[in-house]
Amino acid sequence: MKKNILDYTKQELGEVLQPSFRAKQIYNWIYHKDAKSFDDMQNLPKEMRSKLKEAYTINPLQVIRKEASSDGSIKYLFQCEDGYTVETVLLPMKKEVKNEEGRVTKEAKYTICVSSQVGCKIGCAFCLTAKGGFKRDLSAGEIVAQVLNIKQDNNIAHNRRVNIVYMGMGEPLDNIENVTKAIQILNDIDGLAIGARRQTISTSGLSHQIEKLGKMNLGVLLAISLHAVDDALRDQLMPINKAYNIESVINAVKNFPIDQRKRVMFEYLVMKGLNDDIRSAKKLVKLLHGIKAKVNLIYFNPYPGSPFDRPDESDMIKLKEYLNAHGIICTIRQSKGLDISAACGQLKEKTANELH
Ligand code: SAH
Ligand code: SF4
Questions:
Q1: Is the domain of 204 the same as that of 70?
Q2: Would the CB of 127 count as within 6 Å of ligand 1?
């Protein structure tokens, strides 16, 4: 079987291809000039092009479904070479602004939410991805390809920086090797040049892996899916809490190296009648004491048969106001793309239901 060229860092490519400056040329072709085939790479010797063609593929993913939402977000379902499918979402964060002469005065801003695994082992009670079980890790190249395909499909210029969040399907720290490799490939100046500070890993809280990631000192940002402030409730919602309880997660965060200007994001998925009370907010304030944190409140997004309900807007606002009043930066995640079934795993599920 052919290898995927997107799996290679520039350095690795330089080691297998001689002379090594070819690696930089190939990176430029793939990431800057959108080459779709090795035949396009005109400054490579013909013989090298045909050898590359025999040994490598350029794109391991195929778009099999695409849904646009009224708020501008676009959700993709990609198929891997072995037939498994994963989701990726493009979230436009800010619209382009033009002046009277039609010149762009403010660039549009984008975030791409990528998947790290096919399925997930963690088994959170509220998550649709968990229902399908775990199939396999994505390779670094399959993670990079999600970003590359989406940038190309939306004509986002190669030098336009985007933000990456590892918040799609899967637990990124359960696939730490490939995820950190993808971060480095995406970071390459001859590639997409997406700085580590523009990339956020979201984790259900694998404390030992948070420590390991911290020691790698990549400069990547961290988001913690906390969702509950008591171990008893968190045990029920997220079985991983039995192995790594709230205290161990908080301690791991305290040891994590983070840029002075940045914060660790705590995601708090709010479910009606479960964790939407002020007592929980009070406890959250205590837990975050001494951490440069920000909190993102997320509306639970129901799906057919889901065991929880969407919280009331008034309770979300009360939570936000309480946290703000106690010195914690807090935002409510705008449910981007609710009409395209935006929460992770939901497009995949929909397609499966329609096909069977
Ligand atoms: N495994 C990692 C990253 C992927 S999950 C993690 O858990 O952090 C990304 C986010 O999707 C998590 O914060 C999770 O809480 C959220 N999510 C899962 N199911 C959801 C649902 N039904 N509604 C809203 N958000 C959901
Ligand atoms: Fe896995 Fe995250 Fe879903 Fe939990 S919320 S099952 S960790 S993808």
A1: yes
A2: yes
